[in-house]
Structure formats: C-alpha cells, structure tokens
C-alpha cells in the first residue's frame, strides 16, 4: 500500500487490490486468529486441543494456498509466466487448510462439558470461516473462467459483498469478540461477563449470521440479492457490535487491576476503531460512496482487527515466553514478572504511530488523496515494524532486569522442548 499497489491507485475490485486484501485478511488476520484459537480455545472451555500435531499441517496448507491464490490474482493482471488457472487450485488448498483447522477446533469444542458464551462467538466465527472459504473458492473458479452463465455474473455482482461480510464481519470479528471476552477479563483481572448484554451481543450476532446465510441461499436460488435479509443482517450486526462494546466497557470498569498496562490501552484503541469502522460502514452502505466503503474496510481490518492483534501479541508473546523460561523455576528461585520482559516506554510510541497513521490513512482513502494514503501506509508500516521489534526483544529476553540477564535465551519461534529449530 505504501508503494501505491492496489486501491486507490487501482479499482476496488482490481487484481492488485485483491492481492492486498487477501494478504491482510488471510496472511495476517486469519493466521493470527487461528493461532490465537489453537492456543486459547482450550482455556475457554477447559479441555485440551485435539490432534495437537496437525496445526503445522494447517499452517503449511494455508501458506501454500495463499501464495498460489496471489499468483492467480497477478495472472489476472497480465503478469507474464502465470496462469489464472491456479486461482481455483490455490483456493482449493486454502479450503483444505481452513477445513482442517475447523475440524480441530470444532472437535475440541464438542468435547467440552459446557460452552460459555465466548466459545459460542468462536463457533459462529468458525461457521462463517467455512462459508467464506467455500464462497471464495467459487468466486476464484468464476474469475478463472471455470464457471459461467448467469450465475457467475450474479455471483460477481452480489457475491463479493457476501464474501467480505462472512469473512471480515463473521469469521474474523466474531472470533475476535469471543477471544477478547476471555483475554480482556483475564488481563484486567475482572469477572467474566455473563449478563444480558453478553447474551444480546451473541444472539444478535447469530441473527445477523443467519440472515446473511439466507441472503446467500437467495443468491444461489434466484441469481439476485435479498434486500430484506441484508437489511436484517445490518441491523442485527449493529446491535451486536453496540452490545459488545458496552459490555467490554463494563469489563474495564469492574477490573481489579487499577493501572492499564500498555496492551490493554492498545485494545481500547482497537475497540474504538471497531465502533468507528462499523459506523462508517453503515453510512457507506446507506450512501453508496465507494471511498467511504474502502475507508471503513481499512479501519475494520487494520484498525480494529489488526490493532487488537498487535495489542494482544504485546502481552501474549511475553506471557508464553515467561511460561517457557521461568514457570518451571517457580518455588525454587526468584523469578521475574511477565511485565519485566517488556519495556512499555519504548513500545508506546509505536502503538501511537500505528493508530494515528490508521486514522489518517482512512481519512486519506475517504478523501481520495492517494499520495497522503501512501505516506500514512508507510508510517503505519513503520509502527508495525517497531512493534515486531518489541516482540522479538521480549522473546529474546532483551529487556529483562539485570538480575536475570544471564538467563538462557529461548529460540525465537520454536519452543525449547523441540529437538530442532528451523530458525
């Protein structure tokens, strides 16, 4: 985006824009969300993950499928040496990877004695994920010319919006809501939310997803959209987002940890982006302004989901590193706190830069100021790189107080229990 690749240099449905969109939604957000679920779904339901040796297979399938999908989009852009025929092949590999991930997570969920509401959000998200990838594979076949006729025309005209709604609004947002309910209460030392607002958020999300499925069936059956179903989806989705944000605000108010750590302050900014993005998307759909739609997608993907992911990683990476390095030493020697593995004063400016650039970038998209958008994308990239450096420092124990500086460093990616490392 900083180099001017994709929208607004190209059209909203141009192949280059599709490359950027799928890099973000699959390469960043979906991999992040699946990693989070594979790690924390057992915490949500109190059961071990089934088939724990299969997640590396999922990762491999998703990476291979994503590369092939992106090459297929570039082939549509007339890049020499590539054929658009690899589009549905890449989509098929992606579909197999996502289905395998869903099988692991669904089976783990079904083994729970009871499902708390956060796990219900995750289940809705997984259903949305499967619909998203199946619809995406169908669209890939249409773009490659394998599916024709009136259905293909209707699918391109109406199905792309449904694909985005199931993916960004269903899969990623609902899963993020479910995971964040548990993580926010855990990190804030606050009682879990189980009241009316939580139920309203969940059932509104379920209604929105049901109406969206109805709109998809109407498209398949009649080759046209279902305005009533889409309107119901929008109303229920707004209600779900509103109830969720109010519920999360109540979690913050009832916390026992008085001072907000940096990752929770970053989560506040991300949830503000959810409110802003949902409001902007509602207005964009009502007004039909393309630049407003693009700005809302930017805010929801990189501000809400990307910002929440960056904020949670700032705590999760040190936490997992502490478990690996220091938890076995508890009771035998004095150990550092998880917070001792990070330096908040060094990391805070990068969060500020990231979220400020996000707001400026969304404004530039809305106003169609291309060069300003490229500049803000560069600044946002700089903020993201700065945060990645902080994650690496935490993993390498670079910010530990002097008393623990001589502690052996863990491997950067693979845990110490592995006999080999590819790093």
TrEMBL record:
- Does the entry feature the keyword Membrane, yes or no? yes
Which keywords describe this protein according to UniProt? Membrane, Transmembrane, Transmembrane helix
List the coiled-coil residues: none
Q: Where are the transmembrane segments?
A: 20-45, 57-76, 88-109, 121-148, 160-184, 196-220, 226-252, 264-286, 292-314, 347-367, 373-392
The record, for InterPro entries, names: Cyt_c_oxase-like_su1_sf (IPR036927)
Superkingdom per UniProt: Bacteria
Record-given protein name: Uncharacterized protein
